[in-house]
Amino acid sequence: MEPVRLAVLDLYDNTPNLGMGRIKELVEMFGNAYEYDVFDVRGKAEVPDMSYDVYISSGGPGSPHDGDGVWDEKFFHWMDEVWDWNASGEMPKKYVFFICHSYQMACKHFGIGTVSRRRTPSFGIFPTHKTEAGKMEALFDGLPNPFYIADFRDWQVVEPDMRRIDELGAEILALEKIRPNVPLERAIMAVRFSPEIFGTQFHPEADAKGMLHHFSDPERRIKIIADHSEEKYLDMIEHLNDPDKISLTQRIVLPLFLSRSLRAARAEKMMPELV
């Protein structure tokens, strides 16, 4: 059977990261079922065309409000192309997963809520809580409530525009951990923008083993403690050693997206042949 085509949109702007390697590993778990290409969105202003069936758009550094007027405009235009394609009834549908920085930009572009800077950066492994819609979400099937996430961000999506969300047919699926002593609104941690388009503030590709190795480096350890405290560092390391935390999230969310998108794209590609 002809492979399903997948595009990985790299928004890291050549910043060293763990995310891109993990995304590629998860795609490659499907063997030859997926044929994929990587696009350097911020470094080379590359965006994929509509010949792909599935898209994963990565995290990245910096503000979701900053762009050079070239790569960001191309990125937003690509979002509109995907949305319009799916709305037109064209087959096969286009399936998208936005992660962290991409998710913030998508929420901004589609008007889901306010994208604002956090009072303090979030850094570590934290619980996130499913909403009522999130309890029914297929990509969260098998995750407890709350479930644990890798959360590294200076920015957040808050103040949801429910009128716009209803207009899109979108759903808020998860909210930031409950902080009873913090009088601030909880950030929106996951959104289903449409039946085909999904996004998370957190990093579903994050793997505990790789993060343990990365954050055990003595220089990184010193910097993390200086920036975030020894308590937060030790708490993160403890969670990384727990197989029921982000290891579980990594095994479920993106793999389910990839497997469901693969099945749907294959079925939709065959539909013209059956007519």
Summarize the helices and strands and which ones pair or pack:
Blueprint: E1 4-10, H1 19-28, E2 34-40, H2 41-44, E3 54-57, H3 71-88, E4 95-99, H4 101-110, E5 114-130, H5 132-135, E6 147-158, H6 162-168, E7 171-175, E8 188-192, E9 197-200, H7 208-215, H8 218-228, H9 230-240, H10 246-274
Index terms:
9-stranded mixed β-sheet, Rossmann fold, alpha/beta, 275 residues, 24% strand
The CATH architecture = 3-Layer(aba) Sandwich
Report the mean per-residue pLDDT as an integer: 94
> What is the topology, as strand order, of the major beta sheet?
2-1-3-4-9-8-7-5-6
The chain-level structural class is alpha/beta
Q: Helical stretch count? A: 10
The total tally of domains equals 1
CATH class: Alpha Beta
CATH topology assignment = Rossmann fold
Give the oligomer, counting copies of the same chain as homo and different chains as hetero: single chain
The helix fraction, in percent, is 40-55%
Q: Give the strand content.
A: 15-25%
Q: Total number of β-strand segments?
A: 9
Overall geometric form: globular
- State Rg: 18 Å
